[in-house]
Amino acid sequence: MFDPKFIKLEPNQYALKYKKGLVDKEGYGISFFYNATTASIAVIPTQSTNVPFVYTETTSDFQQINIQGDITYQIVEPRRIIDFVNFTIDSFTKKYISTDPAKLPDRIINITKVILKKEIENLNLKTSLKNTDLLVDAVMERLEKNKELKLLGINILGISIIAITPVQETSRALEARTREEILKEADNALYDRRNSSVNQERTIKENELNTDIAMENKRKQVKEAEMNVEKLMQERKHMLKDDEMTFNIKYEERRKKLVNSFAENEKVISESKAYAIASVMKAFDQIDPRTIQALATVGMKPDQLIALSFQEIGKNAAKIGQLNITPDLLQDLIHNKNER
Q1: Most buried of the four, 28, 141, 154, 285, by CB within 10 Å?
Q2: Does domain 4-166 have CATH number 3.50.50.60?
């Protein structure tokens, strides 16, 4: 029988057309007619495929962890994988006639699980939880060297580990320990903050004390400077007083000498005058008193002569019996006195 069919493939699909057990046509994204009753067609998808996975593994310290991630692979050698996996499609329904294509992701996941298990067994719980990147690199390196994947013509494009979490009991224990560490760090932070505050307060007080000491030293220096200035002023005053006293002493000494000299001069003058008077008196002793009195009246005015006459009359009043003095005489004397 002849049952013609037409098939058109996508660019990321590799087709193999078999006729009588031999490859009649092959290629990426090809289209062709075929006889559904005699031809056999295998379609291998070559696009990248992402497969998620979730594993439960045990670390080196016997702690169970859950590993969640995904792996990306691609069939790069379709002619090689066709020898191990049946990608033949039904000519009428265009669906795979075998479950092999659907099982291929599981095979890759199982290979990854075996490698991941060996890596986890070499790590303890904390290292597994913290060093995800190192775990990914180690698993990726071993996948690239895996012989089964090379035989299948599969290339692992990448593996991602989304989360590694411990089981619930372990997670609670870690949370409790971590919580205690956080609380301890909080207490330490509070202690450090209070200690820092105390240190800062002590520093402030020390600075205040140092400032007070410095101010006291400044005041002391100012006081000492004022005392020194006052001392210098007192010394200057004493020096001025000493100079003044020295000057006064010298002045008084000179004045004393002057007075002594003046007294000596006065003494000499007095002695000269006394000698002169004594000489005159000595000369008068030899002259009659009446003659001296007569000489004294030389040049006298009339009133003075009259007064002298009254003086002589007074001396000889006992010898005078009666004396008449006219008013005219007295009036003339008074008149002459007023004129003078």
Answers
A1: 154
A2: no
